[in-house]
Structure formats: C-alpha cells, structure tokens
Amino acid sequence: MSNPDRPAGYLHGFTSEEQDRLMRQARQLEPAIHDRLPFRRARSLLEVGCGVGAQTSILLRHFPELKVTGVDRSPENLARARQNLAGCAWATGRYEFVEGDAATLPFEASSYDAAFLCWILEHVPDPMRVLSEVRRVLRAGAPIVTNEVLNATFFIDPYSPNTLDFWRAFNDHQYEIGGDPHVGAKLGNLLQAVGYRDVQTEVKTFHLDNRAPADRAEFLAYWTDLLLSAAPGLREAGMISEDTIEAMKVELAKVGRDPNAVFFYSFVQARARVW
Questions:
Q1: Which CATH number do you get for residue 138?
Q2: Band (1; pLDDT cuts 50, 70, 90)
Q3: Inside any domain, residue 107
Q4: pLDDT at residue 6, as a whole number
Q5: Cβ–Cβ under 8 Å, residues 188 and 146
Q6: Has residue 9 been placed in a domain?
Q7: 260 is in which domain, residue-wise?
Q8: How many CB atoms sit inside 10 A of residue 100's CB?
Q9: Rounded to whole angstroms, how far apart are CA atoms 170 and 191?
Q10: CA-closest candidate to residue 125, choices 3, 273, 228, 243
Q11: What is the 3-state secondary structure (H, E, C) of 13-47?
Q12: 93, 132, 181, 252: least CB-packed within 10 angstroms?
C-alpha cells in the first residue's frame, strides 16, 4: 500500500492537451475496459476520478438506464467534463459532476448501486482508504469495477534504451508524488482487505506484433502521447534530461516504422461486490 503521508499528484498535468489526450485514451481502450461490465441492473453509479468525463460518456452510452455521478478533485477537469457531456445527446439529464476528494466522498452511506474506477488508484497515496470510502457509499450487493496499471509489464522491440530510461523515471516520479505505478497487481489484496466479496481480477494484455500491424501502429501512437504527456513534469522535477526525451522520440518513431516491431503491456481489471 502507498504511504498516505506522501503528497498526492498527477504526473501528466492538467493542460488542455492532457484533457484531449484523456478523451483519445478512453476511445482507444474502450473495447478492453468496457467489455461485459456488470452494470445492467444498476441505475445509480458512482464514478470516482471521473476526470474529463471520457469514461462517463461511454458508460452512459453502454447502459441507457444508468445515471452517473462523477467525482473528481480537479475543477479544471470537471469543467471540461461538463463541456464534453453537454455534446452527448444520449447523456442528457443522466449525469452529475461533483468536486470532491476520493478519500472523503461527499455522499451518504448506501447511496449508489454500482461504482466504477479507472486509472485513479495509481494516483492516490492511500488506495485502501479510497476503496473503503467507495464501499461505504455503495448499497448491499452493489458491484464495483476498477481498472489499474501494471507498469512493470511494458515492453517494446526494437530495444529502446532511452525510452526505458524515461519509463523508469516516469515510474519513480509517480512513487515520489504519492502514486503507485504497479497498483494493478495489488487490487485483489486491496479489495479483500476492506471487505469486498466475490473479488475477481483479470489481466488484460495488449500484445501487438505483425499479426495486427494497424492496431500496433495505432497503439504505438497512443503510447507515445502518453509518455510525452509526462515529459514536462519529469523535466521540472529533474528526473529526466531533454536529451533523453529527444532520443526517446527518435526511438519511438523507429519502432513505429519497424516492420517487426512488438508492443506489450498489461493492466488489471478487478470486479467485486459489497455485502
């Protein structure tokens, strides 16, 4: 478990470019994240760490009878979320965005009959406290789904040493600002520890090579955006040099052109229920 005394932070920043990237990321990963979610009978869902509403709009599209309350601590992201959802005809009247802290949710006990978390626990200093708070506001029998990173699984070929140096700095910095870049592997323990039942975890893997060259190229472009979104923060923290960033760009472009390139990454989706 992360140390709750460390300062929490978001290593990608809160720029408009990052907000755009989050929208693209949600569309890119939709098939893996939203496959057969257990929300068919749910009517009120809490989305913790809703950010710019990228996942919210997908949830509302997949479950026409669902109403979603999204909570996030960033007013900038919530303003963008309201803007994004205002343009979704299927979302009208079915969502609310609330500014709040995931560790002290501003809701009464037993208020919701489902919960969804996506790429939030990697950024918080105490994931167990967040999951405990979510459990408090869920009704008996309610399902929870949480998706989290497992950054130790990242692999690309051809060998790209500057990219790997950047990735190490990326993960080290996430630890330093209060997050956990490997929290996905710990979801089973975390959910069980705070009293959830029927805890299940599934490792979801992107293994892209010559069998799917178009998918590989698309995912490499997405991954390049993800890495570069952290470059300003890593530079400012003195974790990485400009030379390494520029060399990484060259390597990633080379991987993108290589006819035998390989990309591999896994994340973890956990499902459980409140009893």
A1: 3.40.50.150
A2: very low
A3: yes
A4: 38
A5: no
A6: no
A7: 16-273
A8: 16
A9: 26
A10: 3
A11: CCCHHHHHHHHHHHHHHHHHHCCCCCCCCCCEEEE
A12: 93
Token pair 């939709």 is found at 30
Q: Which token pair is 196?
A: 């959830």
* Residue 185 belongs to some domain of the structure: yes
Q: How far apart are CA 268 and CA 201, in angstroms?
A: 7
What are 216's two structure tokens? 């590989």
Rounded alpha-carbon distances, angstroms, from residue 150 to 14, 131, 147, 213: 23, 18, 10, 24
Q: Which helix (H) or strand (E) holds 201?
A: strand 197-208
Distance CA 211, CA 250 (A): 24
36: Cβ contacts below 8 Å, ≥ 6 apart: none
pTM of the entire structure? 0.94
**49 token code pair:** 């760490």
Q: How far apart are CA 226 and CA 122, in angstroms?
A: 15
User: Count of domains in the chain?
Assistant: 1
Q: In whole angstroms, how far apart are CA 217 and each of 27, 159, 205, 224, 246?
A: 16, 17, 16, 11, 20
* C-alpha closest to that of 56 among 15, 88, 12: 88
Residue 54 lies in a domain: yes
Look up tokens 């009464």; give the residue.
108
